[in-house]
Design brief:
- This protein is of the alpha/beta class.
- The chain has two domains: 112 residues, Urease, subunit C, domain 1 (Roll), CATH 2.30.40.10; 307 residues, TIM Barrel, CATH 3.20.20.
- The chain is built from 14 helices and 17 strands.
- The strands form five sheets. Strands 3-2-1-4 form a four-stranded mixed sheet, with no helix packed on it.
- β12, α8 and β13 form a beta-alpha-beta unit.
- α5 packs across α7.
- The two termini are 27 Å apart.
Length: 441
Amino acid sequence: MTLFITNASVLNGQGQLENTHVWVESGRIKHIFSGTTSVDEIKASHGGSSEITEIDASGKLLTPGLIDMHVHLREPGFEHKETIATGTQAAAKGGFTTIACMPNTKPVTDKPEVVQLVLDKAAQANGVKVLPYAAITYNELGRELTDFAALKQAGAIGFTDDGVGVQNAQMMKDAMKLAASLDMPVIAHCEDDSLVVGAPVAEGEFARKHGLKGIPNESEAIHVGRDILLAEATGVHYHVCHVSTEQSIRLIRMAKSIGINVTAEVCPHHLILSNEDIPGLDANWKMNPPLRSPRDVEACIAALEDGTLDMIVTDHAPHSAEEKAKGMELAPFGITGFETAFPLLYTKFVKTGRWSLEMLVQRMTADPARVFRLESGRLEENAPADLTLIDLEEQRTVDPSTFASKGKNTPFTGWELQGWPIMTIVDGQVVWSQEVTTPSA
């Protein structure tokens, strides 16, 4: 398929928008033309083929396809929450072309055949690239390491027991040694279980007011500090999931300053919301890590700005309405993230002038690609034609009933946001556009 995207607004090397035409052939970006080149002239130079699909992108931002390196697709085992088909459709609607899914499914992604199942299901879906993580330990129980070599051979891109922290330091060190020998990363959910049992929210005024046990900041930071020392000893690429505390950030910043191979991510909700924003005992505000203090929020924002935190991820975690209706104490942790991520961040940080558009795009494209050594994340000639078209002027109210995801669990219902993806292209194929009705299956 040949695509010809005309008159798109593209960020140049100076962070400015330039009128640009992009020619796509055989799934890759063949040529990029300045806006001064006429459309007719470009068509004539390519033989005037009638097999061209032309997309008029006038007034719209064209970026590399967004990349989300931390998502939960729930399949296999929890298809009532999400399937790979619905999850990838939601990702496409959010402008994501590549996503990496966590292994806390049922069965856990701890054997090559489960990795293959995920890849097969993704291949049958709508075209969004799905990169599976495999578990560090069998059934994520922290007792026995999985077969890292076989899982890598099957297509896993890294190892994590996300959803729970690896509690035993020797187990984590052994995992890091093995991963390093295979040139693979260890991705860590950092949480000391002894400090969090039975707690649904962070320590603070909200927990005290409602008589809830609170999750302390040190429950995360203790594992971050431990793992940094283990990463230094083993030489592994150590990646910290969903950072949420000022203490963790201090440790990561220190580790980077002395050359330890540590990278880290942060979620939109930990950049935008604090525990002071929680309106009541609505489990759509329950997530793990929990919403922390305003001081932690500001620390996360500043750390993303200075590069201590490398990238933005959604931690897309869909649940059924029935599960979330169980209330703050009994409902599962997690919120959906795909379909609101870019407009949330654009509205909160770019429209207010705190961030440049270039920084936001980089943290959602080039930076995750760099950290995980992906070919995508670039809007360059010969790069994969993974592209996202965004209407920076479009304003819309967040309405979960319109989500492609099965999960409607979001704290952002009713928010007025600006800057919505309107088309997603993977390997030169349009996998979602605003005019296309999303499937219900």
